[in-house]
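Worked problem 6 (solution included).
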Amino acid sequence: MFARKIFWLAAAAALCASLPVLSIHAAETAAAAESEQQEAKEYELDTTTFHMGTVVQIKVFGKTPEETKRFAQIVEDEVVRFDDMMSVHKDSPLNNVNKHAGEKVEVTPEIAEMTREALTIADMTHSAFEPMIGPLVNLWKIGFGGDHVPSDEAIKEAIRRVDHRHVRVTEESGKWFMQIGRDQNVDMGAIAKGYIGQKLAEKLKAAGATHALLDLGGNIVAMGEKYPGTPWRIGLQSPDKSRGAYFAVVAASDTNVITSGAYERNFEKNGHRYGHILSPTTGQPVATDIASVTIVDKNGARAYALCTALFAMGWEKAEAFLLAHPDVHAVLLKDNLKDVLVSEALRDKIQPYDPEVSIRLLKQS
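Solution. The predicted structure is:
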């Protein structure tokens, strides 16, 4: 039997001066046994920063305030390192590939690994997820100040440059190289945060952390359990309601819970809403009857990329894809905001919160 008590740590400000800290707590857990009383202390540190164009919120735990602060600093340093490495909005190693389109460019092992994963998923989804979507993203700029519909000519020209089959990733003498087609532009925005979140968890585990919760703009990494025997509970946002209003909650331990939808990044023009997920075929924001897709997967990169792909496919094709890939576990919310399709593997992990939704389990062989 575990009892848990939270109290403020008086030295919080002094310990956390170098971090943008929201709060630091000490969680004291007393375990009673017949022969003896054992008491274990655990300290919690919550921080919020802004990187990669999104809010990064973390919750880490340690045996001492110093260890807890060290874990938080590891996450901060790694997020900055990955942002400097993979951003296409600054002078970065990944953006260097774009600047030298058509040439073989040396890249980091992380960029090579993520790109190989991206190419695999692009093939797997027949380009419903397309890592070379950059020309269209740069044209529309949805979520980055874009507020107009490009001309048909501009869209047609951008589509011509979108094709992941021109990308090559090679290793030579322990070094990694990447080459894209001439005039192409790589954009890993639909996979990078999933990949980075997974790497952050691996780094924390290597440093000795046993559990943490990482939120990279809605891309959730549930590392370990919240408490011994108690999983993290991750809310699935209701697209038509204010943040924090959930249609369902997923229990998660040592996995990623990642959601995609067009309800946060979009603009309206002449009464029509344009979402940020673009079709490499039409060059337009995807026309879909799905409101949101959530993937639960230990592989964060795969989860994030597949969210985008299934959203773009639409309800019927997404369901067919899930039937053909039983190792992909998903929650689909239809655009009527009532019908929910859930992989049977998640039946004991999902709890509906909105009484108006109707859940149908999908049996995947």
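Discussion: The first helix runs from residue 12 to 15.
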